[in-house]
Amino acid sequence: MTPWLLVDFGDVISRPYDDDSYRTLAALLDLDATHLRSTYWQHRRAYDAGEPSAAYWSKVAGRGVPDDLAERLDAADVATWSRTDPQMLALLAEQRHAGARLALLSNAPHVQAAAFDRADWAPMFEHLLTSSRLGVAKPDPAAFTLALATLRATPGDVTFVDDRPENVDAAAGLGIRTILYAGVENLRGALSQA
């Protein structure tokens, strides 16, 4: 096992974004939920890299969104992403107890990064690294280079867990050991073979 376990948040620690969540955002913007689902992800990378909330939600809506509405959208978005998987958190706690050092590396806007800081699970991590604070989003290799610098680690010191193949591939390209997340039990097995 490597000294560091670097873990993604969305769809790994958090539960997946669901249809009700898209419908909530769509209702706030008076949009069709299917259309919102497409534009939500189409414009997300810039938001995750630090773009202001109102600018992001205006792109999603296809029209100007005032700051007060952007705040309501942010609150709904953060509430959805805050639904964590207790089994995953338990596995991470086990890994920490067994001696692994934990760090988070997530593509997340500033408002989500602030929510991470307040989360009850945050203390188990030595570092909460987000794309908005780093200024670069995965799968850009620079995100991993900055993470390694923050951890003061070499690629061989780190195991990275993410649900997106492009992020796993980017980390592996730098020599970081990677695990493509496919559920808690799958991850438990992969970690036990390390």
User: Could you tell me how far the N terminus lies from the C terminus, measured between alpha carbons in angstroms?
Assistant: 5 Å
Largest sheet features: 5 strands, parallel
Strand content: 5-15%
Helix count? 11
Number of strands: 5
The overall pLDDT average reads 96
Class inferred from helices and paired strands: alpha/beta
What overall geometry do the principal axes of the alpha carbons give? globular
Low-confidence stretches: none
Q: How are the strands of the biggest sheet laid out side by side? A: 3-2-1-4-5
Helix residue percentage: 40-55%
Secondary-structure element pattern, one letter each: EHHHHHHEHEHHEHEH
What is the radius of gyration computed over CA atoms, rounded to a whole number of angstroms?
Answer: 17 Å
Write a brief caption for the model.
With 194 residues, this protein is an alpha/beta fold.
Description of the molecule:
- The chain is of the alpha/beta class and 194 residues long.
- Helix content is 54%, strand content 12%.
- The chain has 11 helices and 5 strands, in the order βααααααβαβααβαβα.
- Strands 3-2-1-4-5 form a 5-stranded parallel beta sheet, with helices on both faces.
- α1 crosses α2 (33-42).
- The longest helix has 15 residues, at 67-81.
- It starts with a strand and ends with a helix.
- The mean pLDDT is 96.
Write the layout of secondary structure elements.
Elements: E1 4-7, H1 19-29, H2 33-42, H3 44-48, H4 53-61, H5 67-81, H6 86-97, E2 101-106, H7 110-118, E3 127-130, H8 131-134, H9 141-151, E4 158-162, H10 165-173, E5 177-180, H11 184-192
